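Hemerythrin-like domain-containing protein: structure, please.
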Amino acid sequence: MAAPWADEPFTLISIPGRGVDLSKAHGSVYVAREMAFAHNGMIRALNSIYQQCIHVSASIDIADLLKYAQFWCQWIREHHQGEEDLFFPQIEKITGEKGLMERNVAQHHAFESGLADFETWLNNCKPESYDGKELRASIDLFGKILSQHLTEEIQTLLDLTAYDGKALRDAWNVFDLEMRKGDKSIIFPIVFGSSDGEFEGAGDWPEVPGPVRLLVHYWFERKHQGAWRFSPSTTWGAKRPLAFTGDSKS
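Here you go.
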């Protein structure tokens, strides 16, 4: 039996707009598609942590896994804070419907405490006292709720077809640009390393000029190089076997 990959246990999201000319599609499809790509990356990275956490034993490997998981928490926190502060208010302004995104904010709060407890566990854990089963159990306390939210938010965006499509695209692009302003030695490696260009014909996502991936791979990944061993994909979004599994000889 093949070793598991980062498409389980939490289910990936089907990509909207397949087979559609995106240049002519409504802005809601464009925004939902971009968000689905981002959310799938978050799910793959979490699955990667979940699958590998019970198979690491050496102190250096444990330390790198903890760092990778901390970076994932940072990604989730910044993404959702950006939604609440920037993206969701813009959607409500475009639609003229105050409170339209409140359900999504409420879902953020539903997994917030579990995510905070997970991050606290990671920050306090020492390699010598590490227990992969404890880490996995901590994920179990919030993972399903988080995964449900990441999936359901896509439909919320797809339902915006009655509103100004260009304005929705513009709002997404402003939000996306803001998210890219984070620590480039963290945000770019974790995003690129959790994408999958073959998933439902995803292609090259996120779209960046060609030299950017080279710069990330040969420069920005160097600072936390050990952590990126736990990424499920290469910098170019190609799937690769997880480094630590039940079949691993690492």
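Notes: The mean pLDDT is 94.
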